[in-house]
Amino acid sequence: MRLGPGLLVTAAFIGPGTITSASIAGANFGFALLWTLLFSVIATILLQSMAARLGVVTGQDLAQALRTHIQHPLFKPLAAFLVISAIGIGSAAYEAGNLSGATMGLIEIFPQVATQVWTPLIAVFSALLLYSGKHKVVESALIFLVILMSLVFISTLLMAAPPITQLLAGFIPSIPEGSATTVLALVGTTIVPYNLFLHSGILAAKHDKHTDQRKVIKQTNLDTGISITLGGVITLAILSTASVAFYGSEVGKISAANMAMQLEPLLGNAAHYFFAIGLFAAGLTSAITAPLAGAYAVCGMLGWSNDMNNSRFKLVATAILVFGTAVASLGLDPINVIIFAQAANGLLLPIVTTYLVWLVNQKSVMGDFTNSIKVNMLILPVLLLIFGLSSYKLISLIL
Question: What residues form the membrane-spanning segments (predicted)?
Fold first, then answer.
């Protein structure tokens, strides 16, 4: 079997934000929040599999399906506004952080090169891939980078050698005092709404009504399960390594920026390069996928083509890339912009997941490929927790 679309989703959610969130979780709470990561991976596999199945069966991405099947005069424009504003602008906001993360990694590797050089170069490379208009070219580049990330962070985990008993204990649910925000961050960096548009869009672009859909869905589910699990292992490696290095020590505020330096006593001089390369790969993969996801969402809701060769699709993707490049190149702190994206994510995630579950349960949409009762029983607690976490996140941001 050939891995592909699922790895693009992994490339999208393993970004600088994931590295930072997992580092902070491990440094501040040890292995106690590993259960949160396990929940997030299972929930992501379920949701992304549904989005992929929608694309395979209907030949439409999630945005196109919403536009086609929401007919209520109030809900249709509301859905369009939420998707275009929150997903489109949210993707652009995260793009600034992605480019900044990739730049940070290169600065650590090549300190003698002027910092202002890297962000435009990364943006140009991302634009060339996007403008190629070829899924295989983009997939191949991202698969290489995901493999690179995997080697970097899993090797680091093996070098750190965390105690197995402590790792296993972390999968028992608990919420240590002061960990609620970190729990939200771990969930939020894994279950990302724009990835549902990205995954369904990639599969919709490959739609062929003459193929055996049941066979394609089976292959897609396997691809999704393996790819998302790999992303979970990468995140587990980052969290565990941070736990071994920092938990219980007086190291101050932990972030991806100072993690390599702090790990030198543990991993030696190699730590500097290990994390710099991993951070660069994580930033670059997300920098390529965020414009793609935003373009699928915006174009789908506006009724435009979702073909990567289409000029409007390229225009939307480029606008997202240019916005992120401008913020990252000006040396501005992207935190305030990302806070807005988190607020949009908190508002949109429960709405998008509810619409997705509704769509894949409609016989008129999915035919014989609607959700089974078992899948609906599994997804119900996921939806309830997503609503609860999103409500908490929005309230905390407002207050």
Answer: 32-56, 77-97, 109-130, 142-164, 184-205, 226-247, 273-303, 315-332, 338-361, 373-395
